Amino acid sequence: MELYGDRGFENTTVAEIAERAGVTERTFFRHFADKREVLFGGSGALKEQMVAAVAGAPVSAPPIEAVAAGLDVLVAVLGERRDFSRRRRAIIAANAELRERELIKLALLASAMAAVLRTRGVAEPTASLAAEAGMAAFRVAWERWTGEADEANLPQLIRESLDELRAVTGSGGS
Amino acid sequence: MELYGDRGFENTTVAEIAERAGVTERTFFRHFADKREVLFGGSGALKEQMVAAVAGAPVSAPPIEAVAAGLDVLVAVLGERRDFSRRRRAIIAANAELRERELIKLALLASAMAAVLRTRGVAEPTASLAAEAGMAAFRVAWERWTGEADEANLPQLIRESLDELRAVTGSGGS
DNA sequence: ACGGTCGATGTCAGTTACTGACATCACAGT
DNA sequence: ACTGTGATGTCAGTAACTGACATCGACCGT
Q1: How close is the nearest chain B Cα to the Cα of A20, in Å?
Q2: Spatial separation of the C-alpha atoms in residues B65 and B58, rounded to whole Å
């Protein structure tokens, strides 16, 4: 991350990273599938935690509530160190390939949540849409949170986004 | 696309594509920024059309309606040749890098629509959320349309997805 | 203590996506 | 005919990855 931050992602070679870490290039690629994955390492574990949170929501809770429980985990993990998150975000925002990777990671999280919803008996278009809606709300809240100067409250922003999403979709069908 | 379909995306080299097209490798890279871009060529023009459609929606129309007008264009362009779309989709679905690319293309379309909404006076969290919600509805509808065997109606599926999205977010706030 | 297995690392050679610099060539306008 | 201009070819180079094999240290059973 230091190298990516200083010289930029694309001006940093794997050889440099490996040298800084005191290993060979080959070893780097045994730890990370590719150069981008460095910034998305914990996403597997994160997925597990989110899945557990969604699965652990009360049976009576509507789908969007279960998804919100999953997002709480996401927020807890990503939102704890704000300056770290901002540096990371700046690096990702500055590079198209990293943005792609981030999008697919979030999409994976959403589809994992949708899968859990299905095991809870939610039928298909609904499950995916609830998960996607939650993710959209998160994404927008996340942008604001990392972008704004003052100490905004991330869970609060997510709640507002969900409310806004309801308002926006609620006005009129096609 | 023939090569990608037959041998798979990652087993196809740029040299092969160039040879098939009767040009050199270098020329290939002058037409396409990278190997994936082949499958996403028209997305610039598509964006323009969608932007125009959103901008052209009645001033009185709520944001989600303007977005729906943009999606109609997307549907018209992508949905006209169904078998072509399905082959293309199969290729993309089979490869992670292509899925990444598709996600960022859709995200670009969404953010372009959000930008237009802003020029129409829609305030910020609302604009992004309306665009993202619309895109989520499209994505889910698109999955169903390309996946299902019978001749489903894509605009119809999108309308259903938007309705479902409203239902799903509408049940309860946090 | 000793041999053996195993996991992590190093080494090396190779492929392939992509890029910059320069040459060539056809064609349009004057 | 002259000249630019845009598209292509040629060539050399970089850097991300990958497969195959060697090494080495820790740990395990006897």
Answers
A1: 28
A2: 9
